[in-house]
């Protein structure tokens, strides 16, 4: 099957495709480095959004089928107020709680990794904020890494996941350990291990 191609000048498409590739990689690492994705933040966002939609639907029904008098009843007024409150909470949740988080996962031993992605307008760089913590919350790694999308997108927009995985393994310690474990288990070079002499090419790191 042909590899889907992205518009090379569309930063949003390049970012979305890259974001979507993180979960399949992190959830299929070799034991004991496999991460189980935590959807709790996303589930709360969905709950807030669907509740607001349900309230909007109920008030629309009251207006359309029960008449104007029904819309002035206390329960409808409370529902409208609740709708605006929920939308405010929803906006706060998306921007300040999730804050661009594209993956949150937990290892069997309890360590948690959180990855937030971002891009800047008219910039070809993919930026990740990575936090890796112990089960007790102690920070083991907290760093920002970035590299051009051209590291894993070809000139015609084809996405190649292996260079992305190599970059992540070279930059994030626990993923580097997972890559070495893959090499041990397969008995040969792993596609998830970055070449030693190419790990820093085109990559800017900030701690």
Automatic annotation (TrEMBL):
Pfam families per the UniProt record, alphabetical: SPC25
Compartments reported by the entry: Endoplasmic reticulum membrane
Transmembrane helix listed as a keyword: yes
UniProt keyword Transmembrane helix, yes or no: yes
Keywords assigned: Endoplasmic reticulum, Membrane, Transmembrane, Transmembrane helix
InterPro entries the record matches: Spc2/SPCS2 (IPR009582)
GO terms classed as biological process: protein targeting to ER; signal peptide processing
GO CC terms of this entry: signal peptidase complex
Region (Disordered): 183-207
Signal sequence, start to end: none
Superkingdom to which the source organism belongs: Eukaryota
Main location: endoplasmic reticulum
Bilayer disposition of the protein: Multi-pass membrane protein
Membrane-traversing stretches: 44-62, 74-97
Membership in a protein family: Belongs to the SPCS2 family.
PANTHER family according to UniProt: MICROSOMAL SIGNAL PEPTIDASE 25 KDA SUBUNIT, SIGNAL PEPTIDASE COMPLEX SUBUNIT 2
Function of the molecule: Component of the signal peptidase complex (SPC) which catalyzes the cleavage of N-terminal signal sequences from nascent proteins as they are translocated into the lumen of the endoplasmic reticulum. Enhances the enzymatic activity of SPC and facilitates the interactions between different components of the translocation site.
Protein's recorded name: Signal peptidase complex subunit 2
């Amino acid at each position: 099957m042909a590899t889907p191609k992205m518009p090379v000048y569309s930063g949003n498409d390049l970012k979305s495709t890259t974001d979507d590739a993180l979960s399949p990689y992190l959830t299929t690492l070799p034991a004991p480095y496999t991460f189980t994705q935590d959807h709790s933040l996303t589930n709360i966002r969905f709950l807030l959004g669907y509740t607001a939609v349900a309230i909007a639907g109920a008030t629309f029904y009251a207006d359309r089928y029960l008449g104007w008098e029904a819309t002035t009843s206390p329960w409808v007024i409370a529902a409208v107020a609740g709708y605006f409150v929920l939308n405010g909470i929803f906006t706060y949740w998306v921007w300040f709680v999730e804050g661009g988080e594209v993956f949150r996962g937990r290892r069997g031993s309890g360590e948690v990794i959180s990855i937030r992605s971002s891009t800047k307008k008219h910039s070809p760089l993919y930026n990740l904020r990575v936090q890796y913590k112990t089960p007790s919350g102690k920070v083991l790694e907290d760093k920002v890494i970035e590299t051009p999308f051209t590291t894993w997108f070809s000139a015609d927009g084809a996405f190649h996941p292996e260079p992305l995985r190599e970059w992540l393994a070279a930059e994030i310690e626990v993923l580097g350990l997972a890559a070495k474990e893959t090499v041990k288990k397969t008995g040969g070079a792993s596609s998830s291990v970055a070449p030693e002499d190419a790990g820093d090419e085109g990559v800017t790191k900030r701690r």
